[in-house]
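Could you help me review a protein record that somebody else here produced? What it holds is a sequence and that sequence's fold in token form. I have pasted the whole thing underneath without changing anything:
=====
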Amino acid sequence: MLWLLGFVLLLIALLIPILAIVLDSPVARNLIRGPDPRLIEEITRRLQTLEDDVSNLEHSVETLREETQFVQRLLEKPDGPDSPRQISPPES
């Protein structure tokens, strides 16, 4: 029983400096202090920029998809209703 008490005291004695080191670390300080409002504003601004860029890319991809489908229809059926009419050369 006495050895158990000695073990607990030794464990506590070793945990005190470890706890002090961990609590004094920059990570622990940032967790205690909380997030920086300027950092949150910067992240929000960057996220909005990314969302706008993704929206523009989606629009561009949709436009390219429609153009590709149009060209594919022209290649499959060159005499279809969407095909451009060829102008015959004038007779001389």
